[in-house]
Amino acid sequence: MNAATTPAGEAVNASGLALLREPVPERLISKLPKGTKAQNECPPEQKINCPVCGGWHHPKVRHLDYVGHAAATHLLLDADPHWNWEPMGYTADGLPKFDEGGGLWIKLTVCGVTRLGYGHADKKAHMDAGSREKEVIGDALRNAALRFGLALELWSKADIHGGGSERDAWYQAAITGIYDAPTVGELKARLAAAIDEARARGDQEAEDDFLVAHANKMATAKRPPAPPPSTSAAQRQRQAPPPPDLDEDDVPF
Ligand SMILES: [Zn+2]
Questions:
Q1: Is 1 helix (H, G, I), strand (E, B) or coil?
Q2: Residue 252 CA to ligand 1 centre (angstroms)
């Protein structure tokens, strides 16, 4: 086949399936705001017109990189103009068969190789007829394309718990400080400082974790040795590597 081109028409060296393993060009990457619960539920007057994504949300919301449906389609076409998808099953009327939860399993074929994908989307109020189904199909396509490596690097960069490295460093230091507090007075002071900072950051998840860490510390303070931070469930979850099949709810691809 001919050398592949980017959507801007520039020639690229990789072609076919190898093209899907290439890093996605920056201009095809979109920004998805991922706010904490507190940020998402903040009063309207605290929200700003975001210069990063153009959305309307709390100023400290983090953004994750993702590849949208149109960009994914561009990349699939560049890899194989004859790419195709089909549902795993059909209804009696010959339409794609959605599962009981409204999700859809598909087969995506690129350069003669077929891999499965799954998509889903929540039903939202005031949704146009059919728009949920279209969202499900797009989600399934991107999920299946991931199995070909499309935008894989964004997955490994994305923090599935919604934080970045600066946030992680702060969080780890704060929670370690709580567990390592030498006295009850110091523990109180460290907890208060950590919670103040979490609130300033609009980081409800961290605030909850600090309260849990404090409770654990108080419960075990008289039973030496004190558990290291990594023994709390929240810590184990935070430090666990991303599962091989990431939950589409958490990572925007
Ligand atoms: Zn934004």
A1: coil
A2: 14
**The predicted structure's pLDDT at residue 223:** 55
User: And the tokens for 232?
Assistant: 């709390």
The beta-carbon contacts of 57-61 under 8 Å, at least 24 apart in sequence, are 57/33, 58/202, 60/201, 60/202, 61/33, 61/34, 61/35, 61/36, 61/202
User: In the prediction, which pLDDT does 112 show?
Assistant: 96
42 C-alpha vs ligand 1 centroid, how far in Å? 15
Predicted pLDDT at 156: 60
Distance, CA 52 to ligand 1 centroid (Å)? Answer: 5
- Residue 74 identity (one-letter amino acid): H
Which residues on neighbouring strands pair with residue 66, listed in sequence order? 30
Q: Supply the pLDDT for residue 181.
A: 87
Residue ranges near ligand 1 (ion) with Cβ within 5 Å:
33, 50, 52-53, 55
- pLDDT less than 50: residues of the chain: 1-4, 159-163, 226, 231, 235-253
Q: Can you tell me the distance from the alpha carbon of 217 to that of 180, in angstroms, rounded to the nearest whole number?
A: 9
In the numeric block, the tokens 């998805």 are attached to 32
Q: How many A from CA of 157 to the centre of ligand 1? A: 18
